């Protein structure tokens, strides 16, 4: 069961929303008796709209789907339209989830799970929530790699494990993936998700923070790597306060803050790739849309030292330059 946000957490985040006392709850919404799903949906939607909660309708539909045990949102809409009666336990669960959402908690954390490339992954505060753009990155890599060859892959910043686990699931020719993250919680979550998906036999996870162009022996001994992949922290520090409250109140800031220009970890990844990629190996990164041109110049200026070549940048679904591919010569 989804529990309510603790009272301490709600007090801490009270600046993010108005008090729930401002709302008049219809007499028909009573936890001690059944009530219409339509009435409850309408009431909570009004609260969401008053508080300017993003994606209000879809969030509510997902909460109802979770509580009602529905896999299809179309089924949820039908139940609401037909005014399905809810019992007191269902009402309490939905209200608890809505209370958390009103405090700007992301829907993924409230549901404690999220789908990524058809994989259902466990979610946990404050581990970085996978975005649709990262699904695009995975799809690009699977299209580019040769299905007849074996690959050893290093992922830097594994988070929930979404990239590594997708590659393992959809590419049986991936021999092994080494996944690292500076967050112990993220490493534990990646391991949990790998066990749930029965993909742990080809995955090793290490709690490690990149400091320079060297990897500890326990990681480097698994190389050289045919592919290094990362969705690194790439938000310039000055832009962090512009992020939505759902992000800066709940998600690990270390997974976002890329330093003054957003390039701190990207620079380290280039240096790591120059040392630990195999000949003709590839580095794939998801980056800020302002970065590809800068990265291309950086690689060109250090070509003799790094022995890397900038291959291409690709646009995401929003037509922004988002993904870069760099090859070891």
TrEMBL record:
GO terms for cellular component: mitochondrion. InterPro entries: DNA_methylase_N6_adenine_CS, HemK-like, N5-glutamine_MTase, PrmC_N, SAM-dependent_MTases_sf, Small_mtfrase_dom. Coiled coil: none annotated. Residues 140-239 form the Methyltransferase small domain. PROSITE patterns: N6_MTASE. This is peptide chain release factor N(5)-glutamine methyltransferase. It comes from Clunio marinus. Residues 47-111 form the Release factor glutamine methyltransferase N-terminal domain. It comes from the Eukaryota. Its EC number is 2.1.1.297. One of its GO terms (molecular function) is nucleic acid binding. Keywords: Methyltransferase, S-adenosyl-L-methionine, Transferase. It catalyses: L-glutaminyl-[peptide chain release factor] + S-adenosyl-L-methionine = N(5)-methyl-L-glutaminyl-[peptide chain release factor] + S-adenosyl-L-homocysteine + H(+).
């Amino acid at each position: 069961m989804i529990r309510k946000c603790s009272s301490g957490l709600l007090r801490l985040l009270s600046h993010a929303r108005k008090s729930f006392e401002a709302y008049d709850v219809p007499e028909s919404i009573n936890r001690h008796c059944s009530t219409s799903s339509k009435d409850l949906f309408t009431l909570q939607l009004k609260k969401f709209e008053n508080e300017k909660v993003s994606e209000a309708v879809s969030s509510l539909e997902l909460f109802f789907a979770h509580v009602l045990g529905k896999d299809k949102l179309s089924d949820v809409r039908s139940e609401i339209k037909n005014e399905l009666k809810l019992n007191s336990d269902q009402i309490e669960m939905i209200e608890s989830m809505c209370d958390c959402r009103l405090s700007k908690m992301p829907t993924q954390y409230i549901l404690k799970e999220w789908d990524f490339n058809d994989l259902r992954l466990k979610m946990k505060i404050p581990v970085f929530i996978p975005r649709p753009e990262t699904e695009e990155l995975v799809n690009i890599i699977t299209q580019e790699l040769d299905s007849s060859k074996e690959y050893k892959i290093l992922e830097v910043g594994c988070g929930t494990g979404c990239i590594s686990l997708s590659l393992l699931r959809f590419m049986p020719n991936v021999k092994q993936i080494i996944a690292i993250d500076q967050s112990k919680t993220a490493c534990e979550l990646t391991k949990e998700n790998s066990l749930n998906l029965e993909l742990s036999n080809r995955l090793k996870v290490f709690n490690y923070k990149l400091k320079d162009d060297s990897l500890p022996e326990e990681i480097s001994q698994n190389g050289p790597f045919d592919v290094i992949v990362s969705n690194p922290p790439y938000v310039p520090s000055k832009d962090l306060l512009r992020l939505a409250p759902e992000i800066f109140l709940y998600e690990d800031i270390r997974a976002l803050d890329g330093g003054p220009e957003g390039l701190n970890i990207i620079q380290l990844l280039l240096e790591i790739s120059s040392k630990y990629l195999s000949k003709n190996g590839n580095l794939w990164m998801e980056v800020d849309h302002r970065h590809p041109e800068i990265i291309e110049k950086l690689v060109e200026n250090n070509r003799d030292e790094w022995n890397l070549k900038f291959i291409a940048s690709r646009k995401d679904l929003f037509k922004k330059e988002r993904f870069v591919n760099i090859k070891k010569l």
